[in-house]
Write a structure and sequence with these properties.
This protein has one domain: Aminopeptidase (3-Layer(aba) Sandwich). The protein has 5 helices and 7 strands, in the order βαααβββαβαββ. A 7-stranded mixed sheet has the order 1-2-3-4-5-7-6, sandwiched between helices. Helix 1 packs antiparallel against helix 3 (40-48). It has 181 residues and is of the alpha+beta class.
């Protein structure tokens, strides 16, 4: 499916804030009674308030099909840190906070496009994200994108338990062979 991927940053939050909230409200319509999901606008403001905030919105005409956003992790506060015994040589990490696609665009490749576009412009060595452990198919999707589960955490008392998933951003797509020429 062809969508128009547009990039936004911290300075664009006031322009895109309501779009993010509306997509979330539709994606989680059956769970909006839950106080954790009702706090989504706070999460948008929290992440969007980070000067390194990066967001990609997939547009199909005038409709937002989905989005992905995150920000660089504060050094020493990365979500993976408590689960990994040997610190990577370069621990710089981009925290992918949200990747959401509205129902009509699911299973069309839009989530992969959003993911690739968001991480494709990053300078950090690692990407980390959290996946609700009650959604093993979503975890499998991220595993197909080279993420590995390194642990579990519950970041808020009323949040689900999440799988902490980590991957290198520059994942080699093919083996490099040396040749004598």
């Amino acid at each position: 499916m062809t969508v128009d991927l547009r990039t936004y940053g911290h300075e664009d939050l006031s322009e895109i804030r309501q779009t993010l909230i509306d997509v979330h409200a539709e994606a989680y319509a059956d769970q909006m009674h839950d106080p954790f999901h009702q706090r989504f606008p706070w999460f948008v403001d929290h992440w969007g308030g980070n000067s390194g905030f990066a967001c990609i919105i997939a547009w199909d005409g005038n409709e937002a099909a989905g989005f992905a956003y995150g920000a660089p992790s504060a050094p020493g506060r990365e979500w993976w840190r408590e689960h990994v015994s040997n610190e990577p040589e370069d621990p710089s990490t981009f925290s992918l906070s949200e990747l959401m696609v509205r129902r009509p665009w699911r299973k069309t490749g839009v989530s992969d496009q959003l993911h690739r576009a968001l991480l494709g412009s990053r300078d950090e060595a690692l990407a980390v994200l959290l996946v609700d452990t009650a959604h093993p198919r979503v975890q499998s999707l991220y595993e197909s994108w080279q993420y590995q589960k390194v642990g579990e955490r519950q970041p808020f008392p009323d949040s689900p338990t999440y799988a902490v998933m980590l991957r290198r951003i520059a994942v080699a797509d093919s083996k490099v062979s040396s040749s004598g020429g």
